[in-house]
Amino acid sequence: MKSQPELFSSHSAHRAVVASLVETFRQNPSVSASLSKRTSNLFRTRNHGATKRLDVKSLNHVLAVKPELGVAEVEGMTTFEDFADACLLSGFVPSVVPELKTITVGGAISGIGIESSSFRHGLVHETVLEMDILCPDGVLYTCTPHNEHADLFYAIPNSYGTLGYVLRAVMTLDRAKPRVTLTHQRFAKSTRFLEVLHDESKNSMSDFVEGVMFGANDFVVTTGRFTNQEGPTSNYAKRVPYHSTLRTRETDLLTTGDYLWRWDPDWFWCSRNFGMESPVLRALFGRWMLRSSSYWKILEFYRRRKVQERIDRLKKALGLRVDLSEPVIQDVE
Predict the structure, then answer these.
(1) pTM of the predicted model, to two decimals?
(2) pLDDT, tens digit, 9 for 90 and up, residues 142-157
(3) Which of 297, 291, 245 shows the shortest CA–CA distance to 266?
(4) From start to end of the chain, where are the E strands?
(5) pLDDT at 67 over 70
(6) Fewest CB atoms within 10 A around its CB: which of 31, 64, 209, 312?
(7) What is the pLDDT of residues 247-257, one digit of tens each?
């Protein structure tokens, strides 16, 4: 966790960076633009072509957490990991967090992010009360659901930066407790699984609800509640992947921060592709490897160096079978 000074920035510093970005836009209004950043949580390669690169890396802080209003003001390039850490300092969490901790606030709004807390609040963009959008005309628009720029406010979600970039957002928060207690229920029939999932989503006592399907006859409903309960907690950035416990445990206890990012250390279950479900490898390399950003770096290296293509050429030269299958990630929203 970053220190408090690293998590927060002032409004004056924010305005200075924004003014510089606006000036960059206005100097070359006819040239298309893209964000100057190396990371992405999109499962596809990108070709920026001839674009002006907007340096938004410093817009990665929380500007204010306002417990009395239940809202936070946050910059667009802030990761949800930092956003959540800043809110937890005041006993709050963002109303919805996406799947992976390195997804940014602006990315989750314009690209849509979803998680188990959305059963009550909707998607990430549905927790936004106000946004500052830098548009291709070089104008910064402050948008709310009811002001003169409401059409832009509602058009930004799922626009993937084609209409403009989110530089600042005011978002709702939920009051939190230090820990989350989990209950896992297993089902062999989809009908019963869906009934329980529906009922738990209507249960006012549940703070979190999640359903996981492992196979045609293997389902798990997990419910979570904020708690002050003491006792040992599980940490899934260490010994075992989170998904492996859903069918072996009936209850669990996590810190609130670890609960929010329970899927991140193994990128759901994709860490198995890197051998990181092995207890030995987790012990040796877990501190570095067990976070989604590490897997992205490895994939980027594979793509940049064309590692798989080289392996396939070697196999072909040796007369070995080349796997022609294509990996597909399908996010169902």
Answers:
(1) 0.89
(2) 999 999 999 999 999 9
(3) 291
(4) 33-35, 52-54, 62-66, 71-75, 92-94, 128-134, 140-143, 165-175, 179-187, 208-215, 218-227, 251-255
(5) yes
(6) 31
(7) 999 999 999 99
Measured distance CA(91)–CA(42) in Å, rounded: 31
- Kindly report the average pLDDT of the chain as a whole number: 89
Q: Distance (Å, rounded) from C-alpha 188 to C-alpha 78?
A: 41
Q: What spatial distance separates the first Cα and last Cα of the chain, rounded to whole Å?
A: 30
Sequence-distant (≥ 6) Cβ neighbours of residue 1 within 8 angstroms: 85, 257
Residue tagged 């392996």 (tokens): 311
CA distance 45 to 152: 27
87 DSSP 8-state letter: H
160-127-168 Cα angle (round to 5): 60
How far is the C-alpha of 25 from the C-alpha of 292, rounded, in Å? 32
Report the 3 state secondary structure along 241-290. Answer: CHHHHCCCCCEEEEEHHHHHCCCHHHCCCHHHHHCCCCHHHHHHHHHHHC
Contacts of residue 282, defined as CB under 8 A and 6 or more positions apart, other chains included, come to 238, 239, 240, 276, 289, 290
